[in-house]
Amino acid sequence: MSPVLDPIAHGGALSEAMARHGGAASEWLDLSTGISPFSLPLPDLPADIWRRLPEQAEAVRVAELAMRHYGGAVTPVITPGTQAAIQLLPWLRPDAESVAIVSPTYGEYEQAFRRAGIEIDHIDTIEAAAATRASTVILANPNNPDGRATMRDDIFGFVRAHRNRLVVVDEAFADMRQDLSMAGAAGMEPNLVVMRSFGKFFGLAGLRLGFVFAEPGLSKILSDRLGPWAVSGPALAIAAHGFSRMDLVSNLRQRIDKAHAMTRSALNMANVSVIGETALFFCCEVGDGAAVRNALAGHQVLVRAFDHSPSRIRIGLVPDELSGVRLRETLRLVGVRTP
């Protein structure tokens, strides 16, 4: 029987913050996630898309568009979010006794393998997996929550030197770092799996949409486990729209770059120490992460703290200059300083 594990905390828990600290949703500045504050403009959807099951031809089209968009060499498996793919990772090596996870990182990898009764090895770098018994290695690149990046050559080197190990690379935050992406190698390297998230860059996390690039045998395992109609027709239509409109993609990139610069400026002016980042969030050293999170929440500014890195917080992007000023002044007000 699979062990029953307590759910782990995630960003975006605005309702819980409101229940504890008060205020209406409109009064809060929610910077607790790594999701773009800007959403892809949605297309007009035909009314019958809500009444009929998703068409296989549309799924095939979206998979081909995703392959082109992410630079893949094979058509990906479409999933209802990256989280759904993470839940299925243990099935790719059902006989595995242990998995090595480059840590600290997103907690749901460990949860998925612990539920399957698989031992966890926490490692600092992908190369460190060589000293373990792990038949599966998990790497988030760039990493969440510290933004640490592993260079593509280092991943290639490990994958080719350890073909008996399955290497899973989660590129949920790689949309602005194509130089890191291994999507083009997945499927060509039989022991490599690459996951991509649609919702973070496109600002549509509620859509629940992701893509997994892998060789055909592994892709079939995932597809069989997901079953038919795993992704909704509206989600497929929105993905096709996003992947087909490079003008909208370019605009999102520019807006994210600008928001990133505004957020960094606010942190610098508040004398907060940034120790890592991606295009969509900053990891900051603040001494007592939980205390700073709670102090900020008292002023309706929501950030993320971590049990595994108690001296740090993660701060998402401000959407505009006014929010940048609010973040800066609130950080100053609660007295956040570099330790």
Automatic annotation (TrEMBL):
Its EC number(s): 4.1.1.81
Cofactor(s) of this protein: pyridoxal 5'-phosphate
| Keyword hit for Lyase | yes
Among InterPro entries, the record links this protein to: Aminotransferase_I/II_large, CobD, NHTrfase_class1_PyrdxlP-BS, PyrdxlP-dep_Trfase, PyrdxlP-dep_Trfase_major, PyrdxlP-dep_Trfase_small
Pathway in which the depicted protein is active = Cofactor biosynthesis; adenosylcobalamin biosynthesis
- Cite the GO molecular-function annotations of the record: threonine-phosphate decarboxylase activity
Quickly give the catalysed reaction: O-phospho-L-threonine + H(+) = (R)-1-aminopropan-2-yl phosphate + CO2
Presence of keyword Disulfide bond = no
Q: Which SUPFAM superfamilies match?
A: PLP-dependent transferases (SSF53383)
Q: Which residues form a coiled coil?
A: none
Residue ranges of domain Aminotransferase class I/classII large in the record: 74-318
List membrane-spanning regions.
Answer: none
Major enzyme class: lyase
Q: Which UniProt keywords apply?
A: Cobalamin biosynthesis, Lyase, Pyridoxal phosphate
Q: Which Pfam families match?
A: Aminotran_1_2 (PF00155)
Q: What does this protein's UniProt record list under function?
A: Decarboxylates L-threonine-O-3-phosphate to yield (R)-1-amino-2-propanol O-2-phosphate, the precursor for the linkage between the nucleotide loop and the corrin ring in cobalamin.
Q: What is this protein called?
A: threonine-phosphate decarboxylase
Originating organism: Hoeflea algicola
